[in-house]
Each structure stands twice: as C-alpha cells, then as structure tokens.
Amino acid sequence: MKCLKNQTTTNNFFEQVLVQTQEIISDNIEKVWADETYHSAPNREYCQNDGHNIDLMLIATQGATPRYEISFDEQD
What we know:
Layout: H1 14-24, E1 31-35, H2 41-48, E2 55-59
Parallel strand pairs: 1-2
C-alpha cells in the first residue's frame, strides 16, 4: 500500500488495509484492534455491513491512561 505524505489520514485507508490483509490470510477477519483515530461512521459501517461482521475494538491513543486492561484468552 502506498500513502502520500501528509495527504492520507488513517480513516482514509482503513478499508483498503483490511481488504489487503484479507487477501493475505486464509481466515476471515473477526476483530480489529485499533486506536481511536480509526473511529468513524464509515469504518464502523464497513466492519458491520456487507457480511464482514468484524468487531472493531477501539482503544485510546498513546498517552491516555487506560480504563481497561486488555488480556487475551484462547479465543482471541
């Protein structure tokens, strides 16, 4: 993926990154962990529509005090 410096925000290529990732991996993408800069209506709609059924898990940007501790189990 090519991005032009100072001309692309994180929201503008979110869908493209997921499409390219899905081309590489054999399993369907079920969850995406991303910081809050990816939080937008188009990104949420992409994850939930067209049969994608992707859980968009948003976390705070760097520097913010976390409210939750993230831990993974055998399902994640």
